[in-house]
């Protein structure tokens, strides 16, 4: 059995550890790999996976060995070194660990798993090698992506079958969410703090079509509480004119996937929920992680160029997404987006099929590694 080490630093949200946790489980379950996941913030990790013990430096969860990555990193002998080392999103490995890699008779295959991007340069850089300036080590750059010359996206084969037979109404009823009246549009909301949200909430409250809003506890529910003046604790259900609101507990990844399957439209953010929304195959709106100098708008447009290539009402999607990310009138563009929903429903399955043809990230990564061992 191959042994892999996966290193993850938690920055300020759940995207990094969300991707790493999905990848670690999939490598173990589907590729038969022994995975040791090093994480520097177990408290954030525990919110995604309640089974994680925050005070435990070494533990086994769902078949994956989890190690607390502390500043005083332990010295490992060459016997303890794995076959493969992945540093997620350019996190810096401890120097003592890098030295131990170099001391191995056959050094581990070393990869940097990059952030997801739809930009054209990704296909040129995917799989590139970089020699260490001092040590006998080579690092490879592995890019998730949306094109053939990339690593593809994380995707478990079982997801499609589970989603196809999913009963969203029954699931939400089990969570205490009131039944959705006929003709109601059900929306899930997961976003960063967004100046466009208050106006959109006010519009939904006055909508001619009833809106059922499902909000996992977090930043979005905090902003909702400030706007409404009402309780937005998990379990709260309340009505404001045409807008009914249900606050859900912040949940693990499996339950979040189920929420995406249960909604008619999904507002998502960052990387992990963005990818899962594409597998959910429902219309969605992406709040990309904001970066300095508006670099994120370049990444947003790069994805839209690919996603909307064969999409009906592409202009309505593009304008709504731009408004949600700070460029445009959110209410005006939402009206056009909502009017386009019947046509957009066929786009999700077609787009997911196109992505699935690329192969899943875990499998592509395993095959790439085997070619280097």
UniProtKB/TrEMBL annotation:
Job of this protein: Protein-arginine rhamnosyltransferase that catalyzes the transfer of a single rhamnose to elongation factor P (EF-P) on 'Lys-32', a modification required for EF-P-dependent rescue of polyproline stalled ribosomes.
Keyword list, A-Z: Glycosyltransferase, Transferase
UniProt similarity note: Belongs to the glycosyltransferase 104 family.
Alphabetized Pfam families for the sequence: EarP
UniProt protein name: Protein-arginine rhamnosyltransferase
GO MF, one example: protein-arginine rhamnosyltransferase activity
Record carries keyword Lipoprotein: no
Catalyzed reactions per annotation: dTDP-beta-L-rhamnose + L-arginyl-[protein] = N(omega)-(alpha-L-rhamnosyl)-L-arginyl-[protein] + dTDP + H(+)
Organism, scientific name: Chitinivorax tropicus
Superkingdom, taxonomy of origin: Bacteria
Keyword Transferase: yes
Xref: InterPro entries: EarP (IPR016633)
């Amino acid at each position: 059995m191959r042994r892999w080490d996966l290193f993850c630093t938690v920055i300020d949200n759940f995207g990094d550890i969300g991707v790493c946790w999905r990848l670690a489980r999939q490598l173990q379950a589907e590729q038969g790999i022994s995975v040791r996941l090093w994480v520097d913030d177990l408290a954030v990790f525990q919110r995604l996976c309640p089974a994680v013990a925050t005070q435990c430096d070494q533990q086994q969860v769902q078949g994956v060995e989890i190690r607390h990555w502390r500043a005083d990193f332990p010295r490992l002998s060459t016997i303890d070194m794995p076959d493969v080392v992945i540093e997620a999103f350019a996190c810096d490995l401890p120097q003592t660990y890098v030295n131990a890699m170099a001391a191995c008779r056959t050094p581990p295959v070393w990869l940097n798993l990059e952030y997801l991007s739809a930009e054209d340069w990704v296909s040129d850089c995917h799989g590139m090698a970089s020699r260490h300036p001092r040590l006998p080590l080579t690092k490879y750059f592995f890019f998730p992506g949306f094109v053939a010359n990339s690593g593809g996206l994380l995707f478990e084969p079982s997801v499609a079958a589970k989603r196809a037979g999913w009963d969203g109404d029954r699931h939400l009823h089990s969570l205490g969410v009131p039944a959705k009246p006929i003709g109601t549009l059900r929306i899930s909301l997961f976003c960063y703090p967004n100046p466009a949200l208050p106006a959109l909430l006010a519009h939904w409250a006055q909508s001619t079509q009833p809106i059922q809003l499902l909000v996992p506890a977090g930043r979005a529910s905090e902003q909702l509480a400030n706007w409404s003046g009402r309780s937005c604790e998990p379990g709260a259900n309340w009505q404001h004119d045409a807008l009914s609101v249900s606050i859900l507990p912040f949940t693990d990844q499996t339950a979040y996937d189920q929420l995406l399957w249960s909604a008619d439209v999904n507002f998502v953010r960052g990387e992990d929920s963005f990818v899962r929304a594409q597998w959910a195959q429902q219309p969605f709106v992406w709040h990309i992680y904001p970066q300095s100098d508006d670099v994120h708008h370049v990444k947003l447009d790069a994805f839209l160029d690919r996603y909307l290539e064969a999409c009906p009402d592409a202009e309505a999607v593009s304008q709504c997404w731009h408004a949600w990310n700070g460029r445009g009138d959110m209410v005006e563009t939402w009206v056009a987006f909502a009017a386009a929903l019947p046509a957009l429903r066929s786009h999700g399955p077609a787009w997911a099929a196109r992505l699935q043809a690329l192969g899943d990230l875990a499998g592509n990564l395993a095959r790439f590694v085997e070619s280097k061992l």
